[in-house]
Amino acid sequence: MGIAFASIWGLNMIRNNLLATAGVVALGLTAAPAFAAGTAANSNIVNTATVNYQVGSTPQTQITASNTLVVDRKVSMTVTEPGNAATSVSPGQTGAVTNFLVANTSNATLDFGLSAVDAANGTTLHGGTDNFNVSSFKIHVDTAQGGVFNGTYDPGIDVETAFVDELAADTSRAVFIVATIPAGRANGDDAVITLTTQAREGGTAAAQGAVVAQTTGANTAGMDTVFADTAGVTDAARDGQFSARDDYSVSAATLSVTKVSRVISDPINSTNPKMIPGAVVEYCIQVANAAGGADANTVVVSDAVPAQTTYDSTYGIFVGGNVNGTTGFCEAGTAGGSFASNTVTGTIASVPANSTRTLYFRVAIN
Amino acid sequence: MRVAARIAAGSGALCLALTAAGTAQAAGTTAGSTVVNTVSVDYSVGGIAQTAVNASNSIVVDRRVTLTIVEPGNAATSVSPGQTTAVTTFLVTNTSNAPLDFGLTVAQPIGGPGAHGGTDNFDAGAPATFIDSNANGVYDAGTDLAAAFLDELAADASRTVFIVSGVPIARINGDIAVVTLTATAREAGAAGAQGIVLTQTSGANTAAMDTVFADGAGATDAARDGQFSARDDYLVSAALLSVVKTSRPISDPANGAANPKNIPGATIEYCIQVTNASGGATAVAPTVTDPLPAQTGFNAGFGVFVDGTINATTGFCEGGTATGSFVGPAPGTVTGTLANLAPGATRTLYFRATLN
Prior knowledge:
The complex is a heterodimer. The model of chain A is unreliable at 1-34 (pLDDT under 50). In chain A, the strands form 7 sheets. In chain A, strands 17, 18, 20, 21, 22, 23 and 26 form a 7-stranded antiparallel beta sheet that branches. Helix content of chain A is 7%, strand content 46%. By secondary structure, chain A is mostly beta strands. Chain A has one helix spanning 6-29; strands at residues 44-55, 58-59, 63-70, 73-75, 77-80, 87-89, 96-104, 110-118, 124-125, 128-129, 136-141, 163-167, 171-180, 190-201, 225-227, 241-250, 255-265, 280-289, 296-304, 309-311, 317-323, 330-331, 334-335, 338-340, 343-351, 355-365. By secondary structure, chain B is mainly β. The model of chain B is unreliable at 1-24 (pLDDT under 50). At the A-B interface, strand 1, strand 2, strand 3 and strand 15 of A face strand 17, strand 18 and strand 19 of B.
C-alpha cells in the first residue's frame, strides 16, 4: 500500500532504530552481540577448558586447552508487503508506489539484489486478479535523510537502484516499486508485481557484491555459508532469495453526464412559462460517478452556449450542486465558473463514487 | 722398665685392667677412659720371699672421631611437582668412640650426576633437616622436629635424619634434584645444645685425651676431616597431562545433521580430551572446568559426559557417562571429574551447546 501506511512505517523505523541502538550498546559489551539473527558470522567463539589434577596428593599446575570456532554465515531474508493490501491507483497514474520491506535476517551484513517482474495475467492477490501490466516500473530504495530512513517514498530522494547496499544483520530497508499505470484501465483492473531479492556479498559500500554461494559439503574451519531462507511466493526455500508480491488495483471513476433544461419564465405567462423567445431557460448538467470507483476530482464542465440563446450573466453559474430528487433539476451549489467566448466553464471539485454533482446556468432564448 | 719388661715377659702375668666404662664395641674403647696397667714383681732373697714390688702405668684413651651417613633405600626419592613435603631419608651413625653432636647441613649441587643416575637439573625448595624424634625411621610431620644437629649421639648409635623440602610445581617428569647431607662432628657438650666443632689434636700424643679424625671420605667431603656426606636424589614423577579441545557442529537449523555448519541455532559438540603420556605418574582425579562462551547456550538435554573415549576414526568424543554437571546462570560452566588417569591413557569430557 501507499501513503496510508506511512504511520506503520514510522513505527517500524522507530523499532529498527531502537534495535540499532541496542546493538551498539551490546557491541560495547561483547564481541558478538546477541541479535535475533544470532551470533555474527565469522566471529570467533573461543572456549577454554581447564583441567585440575593431582599427582599423588599434590595438586598440579592446571592445564588448559582452547577451541576456537568460526561462526558460519546463515543467509536468510524476508520480503514483506507491510500493508498487505492492494495499492489503489488511478488510470494513467505516474509514480504509483508499492512498498516492500526487505529484512536481512542473516547473521552478516549483505547486499541484496533487487529484481521485479510484472506477474502474468491471472495471478491473484488481495482479492484481485491480474489483468494488465503497468506501463513501466522502477525500483527505488529508501534513502536516508539526515541519517534517518523514513520508510516512505520520497521522489528525488529515494534513489533508483538494483540493490540494497550493506544491509546489516537484523535490519530492514523499504523498497519501492514506482510504476506508471496505463490510462484507460477500468475500475478493478489489477496488476501484480513480484519483488525478488537475492543475497549478495556485502563488504564494499556502494557496489553490488557477487551473488552469495552456499558452501557445499562438510563444515570447514573457515566461515561457511548456509542458505536458511524460506520459500517466497516465486522462489524456493534455501535458495538465497526471497520474493513477495503486491498489486496495483485500479480505482477508476466511471463518469456519466446528463444535461436537462427547463423554462423558468417567459415574457407572457406568469405561470406555466413556455420556451418562447425572451423566455429564460435553465440548463442543468448532471455529472454522475458510478458506485465502486474512485472519486472523480477536478471535473471540468464546458458548455458552449447555443447561438440562439444569450447567457444570463445576472444569474451566473452554479457549481457543485445536486439534483433535486423530486423535480430532477439542479439546485444548490456555489456560484462560480466563468463565461467566455460564448462558453460556460466550471470545475466541480470532486464527484465521489456513487454520487452526482451538477453545474447549472441560465440563458435567454433569442 | 727394662726389668719390669723382662720380668713381665718371663712371668706372662701381664694384666690389663679396663675401666668400667670401657665396654667392648665396634667403636672401641671409650675415649677419655684411662687404661691402668700394673706390674707386680715377686721375688725371693735367699729363699725368702720378699715383699712384692709393683709398678703401674695409666694411659688415657684418645678420641677417634669417625662417622658414616648412608641412604637406606639406596634409590631416588620419587616426588610430585608441587609436593611440599618431599622427604629423603639418611642414617647418621656415630662410629667414634665418644658421644658427639653432629651438625647437619644440606647442600644442593648445580648440575652434575644424580646419586642414582640421571643428572641434577633443579634445586628443591627450602630443604631443612629433621630428626627422627620417635626413632621409627619414618618421617612423621609434627613429631619429627627440625634441627640443625644431632644431639648427644652415643658411640655406635645411629639416628635417622630427614631432608624435607618442596618440589617446584613446574618440574616435569624425570627431573632430578640432588641433595647432599653433611654431618660434622662436634663436641657433645651439654644436652640440647650444639657443641663446638671438633678439632684434631695436632702434634705428638699428649697425656690427656687427644682427638683423631678417622672418618672416610663421603660424597663431597674428604677423609679425616671430621665430616661425612651422602647424597640422595629427588626424582620427579609427574603426570604428563595434556588437554585438547575440539568442536564440531552436530546439526543446524538449515541442514539438519547433513553437513551441518556453525550457524546460529546450530548444536555444537565440544570434545575435551585429557591424555596422560606414558612414563609419568597417574593423574589423580582430573577435573575439567569449561566456562561456556557467551555466544552459546548449554544443551541440558544432552548433558555432560565424562570418562568417554575418542573415536579412532572421527577423532571425536564418544562413550562415557552423563555424570558431569552444569552450573548457571547462562552461559554457565561445565565441570566434570574424570577417573584417575594412568600413564598412557586418554579420557574425555564432552557436552553440547547451541550457538546463539
